[in-house]
């Protein structure tokens, strides 16, 4: 019997819960709690209609550690899957420690008043989880998540060392809206407007946000402009793949997205410093997020595909010299929506969250302490990912990237 409690009821949670219900032999009991219970109930209704599985739902503010601890003790899950926002990571980890259950998330902790995502806060929980004999798995989404597992799969099966690594995240989908984000708008805009950072020769190189771009021809999507950005897996990859000479993260954005974002930034609507408006304190970015389309409403209208993967260059395992491999997944927005009622960005995050949870519940991934995806065997994870809607492919490229 493996009982699981999921926290958060947005697009990513919706996909993960649907996929857990489709793997009922592993997830024998599914409980879902979030700040707004009606959103949990809507997911439960869709899951019941699509799979026949019943989901128990609860209202919880995950930042209230004593209340969350009580809920975990009441439900008695083996694992808590955190699909709320990065701000809730530490309180949910605290409640898991109190109640004695394992923990998983898809995004690293960010303090609300500082757009800075780093693993240091969660890595500081290492001893606490180890002492209690519990496992915390960090970043089990697509990026972070699968992109790190892809790198480790290449290191296990193709390359003895990785000299350079580029993560390429392309969303070739069109949602038909003038401007919308494909996951939580507040988190998305904080990420995109932060300075770019990449790892080069043992140190971080910082450049202004959205300044360095390249065109790349993505399989089944076509040529797109992609922008150099900072992304959290660069921190864990540079730690767990110490030989990396250079690691970069690129994400595609259309001209319309850039145009809207530039205007919003120029008029101050992406700021995270509170301002006083009609006697009330508001955070401009939170106000903006409230008026933008909700990511979970984009499923019906989004068409096209995502293509996310890693290009790695290094010494071949078979001693044949330096080689370059490209490993990636393509996901179709409309197919994702037909299966779970959510577009591919939620789908490509929710499926790996379910697979990471399955790895922990079945004991194929186990340990005591705080773990990043790079520390665990890539094979069982990628096998299950491929049979649960996210097949991947690997090919050898004739030469390293020329940029
Ligand atoms: P949404 O904003 O759609 O959903 C977030 C959910 O968390 C909402 O249901 C929200 O409740 C709930 N929530 C927020 N605050 C609290 C709280 N204090 N207590 C309880 N519940 C709370 O986000 P997404 O589904 O798009 O993203 C979910 C997570 O996935 C985020 O952390 C995001 O960063 C991460 N992500 C990771 C990716 C990866 O590849 N690794 C890619 C995309 C996203 P309410 O409905 O009341 O607002």
TrEMBL record:
SUPFAM superfamilies for this protein: NAD(P)-binding Rossmann-fold domains
Domain Saccharopine dehydrogenase-like C-terminal: 141-389
Domain Saccharopine dehydrogenase NADP binding: 4-137
Gene3D superfamilies reported for this sequence: Dihydrodipicolinate Reductase, domain 2 (3.30.360.10), NAD(P)-binding Rossmann-like Domain (3.40.50.720)
InterPro entries assigned: NAD(P)-bd_dom_sf (IPR036291), Sacchrp_dh-like_C (IPR032095), Sacchrp_dh_NADP-bd (IPR005097)
Protein name (Swiss-Prot/TrEMBL): Saccharopine dehydrogenase family protein
Organism the protein comes from: Altericroceibacterium spongiae
């Amino acid at each position: 019997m493996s009982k699981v409690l999921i926290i958060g009821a947005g697009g990513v949670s919706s996909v993960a819960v649907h996929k857990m219900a489709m793997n009922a032999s592993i997830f024998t009991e599914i409980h879902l709690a979030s700040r707004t219970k009606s959103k949990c109930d809507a997911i439960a209704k869709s899951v019941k209609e699509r799979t026949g599985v019943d989901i128990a739902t609860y209202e919880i503010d995950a930042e209230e550690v004593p209340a969350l601890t009580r809920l975990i003790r009441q439900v008695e899950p083996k694992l808590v899957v955190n699909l709320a926002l990065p701000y809730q990571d530490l309180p949910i980890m605290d409640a898991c420690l109190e109640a004695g259950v394992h923990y998983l998330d898809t995004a690293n902790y960010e303090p609300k008043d500082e757009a800075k995502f780093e693993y240091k806060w969660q890595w500081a929980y290492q001893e606490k989880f180890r002492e209690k004999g519990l496992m915390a798995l960090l970043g089990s989404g697509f990026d972070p998540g699968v992109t790190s597992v892809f790198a480790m799969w290449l290191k296990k099966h193709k390359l003895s060392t990785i000299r350079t690594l580029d993560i390429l995240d392309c969303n070739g989908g069109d949602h038909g809206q003038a401007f919308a984000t494909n996951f939580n708008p507040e988190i998305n805009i904080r990420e995109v407007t932060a300075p770019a950072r990449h790892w080069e020769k043992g140190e971080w190189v910082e450049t202004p946000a959205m300044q360095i771009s390249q065109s790349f021809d993505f399989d089944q999507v076509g040529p797109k402009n992609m922008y150099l950005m900072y992304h959290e897996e660069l921190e864990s990859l540079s730690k767990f793949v110490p030989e990396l000479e250079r690691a970069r993260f690129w994400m595609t954005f259309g001209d319309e997205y850039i145009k809207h974002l530039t205007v919003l930034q120029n008029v101050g609507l992406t700021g995270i410093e509170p301002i006083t408006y009609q006697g009330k304190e508001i955070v401009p970015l939170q106000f903006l997020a409230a008026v933008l389309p909700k990511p979970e409403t984009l499923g019906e209208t989004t068409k096209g595909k995502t293509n996310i993967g890693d290009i790695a260059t290094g010494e071949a395992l078979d001693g044949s010299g330096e080689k370059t491999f490209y490993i990636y997944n393509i996901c179709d927005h409309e197919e994702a929506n037909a299966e779970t009622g959510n577009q591919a960005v939620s789908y490509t995050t929710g499926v790996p969250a379910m697979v990471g949870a399955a790895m922990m519940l079945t004991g194929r991934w186990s340990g005591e302490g705080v773990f990043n995806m790079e520390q665990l065997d890539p094979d069982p994870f990628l096998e299950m990912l491929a049979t649960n809607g996210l097949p991947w492919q690997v090919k050898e490229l004739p030469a390293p990237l020329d940029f």
